[in-house]
Amino acid sequence: MNLLEVRNVSKAFGSLKALDDVSFTVEAGSIFGIAGPNGSGKSTLFNAITNIPFAPDRGEVIFEGNTVTGMRAPELARRGLARTFQRETSFDKLTVFENAVLAATYGKPDQSSAVNRRNAEEALELVGLDRRSFGRLADELSVFDRKCLMLATAVAMKPKILLLDEPASGLTKPEIETSIGLIKQIAQQGITIVLIEHVLTFLMTLSQQLLVLNQGKVLASGDPREVIGDPRVVEAYLGSRRHDA
């Protein structure tokens, strides 16, 4: 069953086409990877799906069979769609536990405070932030623990689908390996995951389907091994790396 469907989504900023007729579907219970060189439109795609901070100019976003294009972020969260961002986001002067409780309440405002607190505890422990860290301020955490906190706040919302924007960014190799394990654990909770990442080994390890964007367009999509072997994908990545160098 398709949980998320993106149909012909486009977004322009003046004469720049950041997204150009992008379409794909994500099956419930899967991990769906999105790759592409810098500036290919990956984060813009997440922004357009979640309406943070803008909706697409054209096209349609369908979640659980219902059109949600341009729907406000709080309503999307309550329907079960959550996301993270490239940079670690938290309320720095709140504690780890307070951040998670706030997220749980945001995702399920009609639930009792006791249920939201329990969801917060479970989410924090799932990502390895134990009770000894609950009382620490968010800005006291390491980069890796802040990323774990961002994951936990998303999981505490009890989403059906979670959009992760470059969760491995800025991490060491051992931390990346740990993050792979954490994302697998999150998926085992029944949460469908859409994952943007530059680290191809990260995507190849986790993704059942892979989509590659280049200059706002879908360059290739399908089985990860076949997609990575596509000469157009190889050229896009090698060209990007030569340019960055």
Give your account of this protein's structure.
This protein folds into two domains: 164 residues, P-loop containing nucleotide triphosphate hydrolases (Rossmann fold, 3-Layer(aba) Sandwich); 70 residues, no CATH class. 40% of the residues lie in helices and 25% in strands. It is built from nine helices and ten strands. The protein has a six-stranded mixed β-sheet with strand order 6-7-8-3-9-10, with helices on both faces. Helix 3 packs parallel to helix 5. The radius of gyration is 18 Å and the shape is globular. The C terminus is likely disordered.
What labels would you give this structure?
245 residues, alpha/beta, Rossmann fold, 2 domains, six-stranded mixed sheet, four-stranded antiparallel sheet, 10 strands, disordered C terminus
Short description:
By secondary structure, this protein is α/β, with parallel strands linked by helices. The protein is 40% helix and 25% strand.
**Beta-strand content estimate:** 25-35%
CATH superfamily of the largest domain: P-loop containing nucleotide triphosphate hydrolases
Weakly predicted, low-confidence segments: 240-245
The structural class is: alpha/beta
Instruction: Count the DSSP helices.
Output: 9
CATH class of the largest domain: Alpha Beta
Overall pLDDT: 94
Q: What string, H for helix and E for strand, traces the elements in order?
A: EEEHEEHEHHHEHEHEEHH
Radius of gyration (Å): 18 Å
Question: Please, how many domains?
Answer: 2
Distance between the termini: 42 Å
Shape: globular
CATH architecture of the largest domain: 3-Layer(aba) Sandwich
CATH topology of the largest domain: Rossmann fold
Q: Please give the number of β-strands.
A: 10
State the helicity in percent bands.
25-40%
Q: Can you list the strand order of the major beta sheet?
A: 6-7-8-3-9-10
Largest sheet: 6 strands, mixed
